[in-house]
Amino acid sequence: MPLIPTLKKKILVLANSSKSPGRCVAGIEIVSDTREGLVLGEYIRPIDATQPKAALRLSTTVINQRIVRPLDIVEMEFRKHAADANHPEDWIIYQGSEWALRGRLCVDRLEEVPHGTVDMWGSGKRIEPGTVKATVQVIKTTQRLAAHAYLNTSYGYPKHEVRLHFNGLGISITDTQYIEAHNLHDVPANERKSVEVAAGSFLVLSLTPPFEPYNCGTKYQYRVVAAIIEANA
Prior bond to 213 cis, omega within 30? Predict the structure, then answer.
């Protein structure tokens, strides 16, 4: 039986966030690291085609008993590009291969990563599928922002939510490492906890795959804050 050709890529991890029933990792390919700076390729979101919703297994994102986190440089092996027009950064990982940690980037060097703008995907929380060319972007904050954790009971049941408020929107934070680091994961009923996100922090924003909210009959892609990378990261 012929071997399936694979492709190894070195990825600067920008986010390792929650995605039911597993994880969602996003990053950008490092082509080379020269004296003049990083030579970068395209944004990449590794996915597992064998899993529900193509979510990564948690075990896939663990190297040397530590979960992969933003600023890690990781070598991954891919089978092919997913060719998903709604999620163009998706690449299908090669089953059976283990990720290898190749280093870690200083947070200051995120200046070398292309930056997006808050209005890149319009002014709302959601977009119609396939209407943008990129579904990952990095933004450097220019002012202090606030993250809020609370129990939302508007669904008919209590649901723990953590949202970042910026540009007039409350965007879901899926960065579990940030949530745990700031104790935003355990908020009692009828209480609200807030933390400040300092100016100069980096936000990694992502658009979800298309899904239909609350049986409304139309699918949308929603903004999420996949990672908050603080200056002392």
Answer: no
